[in-house]
């Protein structure tokens, strides 16, 4: 232990107190023992330090900081070095604001296009997500502070996020949902990691020994601090025993007593507490020193310029009929769409940054050299039909050679806490597009949205520029691409399906129940579409350029490939060369091909370069559920090099030595998983894949019943609470402005009351509420009252002792 000297001076109460937060974003301090507190702040695309009233949903204001493009955006650059530069700048701002732990990046797998937080995540592919996240972590930690990759793990939906059980087979868990985290932990050594709210196969992620001990700490060698998501601690003692270091936010002193009781009763050992404390103290001393040394200012203009560069490198050109783009100097343009004046540039929730400055597309156009004949709002942002706005825009469109139409999802469509209802743009925007296309054939759509959309309207535009959510400088980046100052080189980090109805997870995503069946197994995103042979709108890895690239001279060994890439067009540009591994004759079923390497190469017009893409230990492996380890199936593999997952330019064969393990599925009937046709997997087959019966999905009246579920209890008071919350929520959704606070409460389990009320409610009081819901009204109520009195008395005494220590 690194800090045994301090630990031995602490009594059990002091030790336990240090393992939970002191405020919403600060750890506890014991000044008498020389232990300072540190600050943790969101987040993934800029610092959200709340100097005043703090909350974990981004509701109250925070100190101004640079709002960088969201992770979903920068992922489209396929450039971990760019991620590292962004991370470094965010880390610098964090350190300047005395933040020790920056709560990001988020790298959950985009299992469904509808997850409300997809804008915060990198990709549907774990290799790309892991590599990008590793870049961010390296950059953030260059400042001596800690990054905090999140949310570990299998947290791919927002509905019931604090009380949903992700039911997933071990192979899919390892290959899809954990590989990105493995890459970031092994390659970038984050000092902390955030456990997710949900359960994984029946056990809360934060107290899941399999995740935290077996895999994270033992297999991957993580020796840092595991931080709970805010209110994500279920049983703090089990968390500590199984590898979770710090419970956040301040849960009240009841949590300290809970931990002490667990030690005293032998449920956990004091050694467990000491081990976690050692991790915490290391984090505190190490990052505190870095923060103290860091300058209190940073170059905001330089960070703005970096944010613009990052956004520009991440723009994906999805369509460019007749080479309409780039626009020539002086081109007569009309600008339409509300997003041109008020950009949509980040998502809602805990990641929302109070931006230092926000550029608008309209303002940025003044420096573009284009001739702007005017601007019209065109549509109501929240989707209300408005004929006058449409008419005005159509009239303006007739006066220009090219129409730049800024469309996108409005602020509330993509938010933490809330999954999207569909993959559609608002109808009033589509009506405008159709009307404009009828009077002007040269329509360029500039799209702001943090996740994939259906594009049946593609025919109505000649060019489609996808800026994703480009951060505070994203508007300028769009202008750079339109004018050709920047040649677009971004590629999609997620598949764009033709329609949500094609999604492989649609029947098992965001259900109302307690369990979420990951029935599709490995077949998420392109892994499904390509194996099952389903067409898509835009494949994974797709993106156009103003130039063209030729691939030749592929040389391959099992350790990697080299090839020559030539820029065959007229302008300089970057190409993302992708390497997919396939085994068409595989005995152990697997997706048709999987991304195992990529390289971004910058080429002047006419220039050729030799590109090397190494393959690592993850290239051929699969998780064998019989041997419970990574194995390699021997034989020949195809190494496919392409410009997207659907545009393979060169293929080579290599022979790989296998590890000789038997096929774990030899005598298991898995016909759908063998073909990838997984949209109709019967129960028995999913159970066979799981290796156990599918867990029952029923509401139980216990600490983990959500407030919204109280309607299923036996307490009239509970019914009332559920009904009122439900009504408020429904109303706010109908108004087009879902109330994130109410939403959070509606989906919050009862036990979180004891974790998120600053100590006002104890777990004993929660147990009283549970009794109440079970129908023991009088005893339940009495218990709540007795426990409340006890809580107040004990808290007062404990705080006094801790203050004096
Ligand atoms: C989010 C985390 C965030 C935390 C603190 C939670 O609601 O899930 O991603 O870091 O709040 O704001």
TrEMBL record:
The organism's taxonomic lineage, starting at the top: Bacteria, Bacillati, Bacillota, Clostridia, Eubacteriales
PANTHER family xrefs: BETA-GLUCOSIDASE (PTHR42715:SF10)
Keyword Hydrolase carried by entry: yes
Keywords, comma-separated and alphabetical: Hydrolase
Metal-binding keyword on record: no
Name listed for the protein in its UniProt record: Glycosyl hydrolase
Family that this chain belongs to: Belongs to the glycosyl hydrolase 3 family.
SMART domains: Fn3_like
Organism name: Faecalibacterium prausnitzii
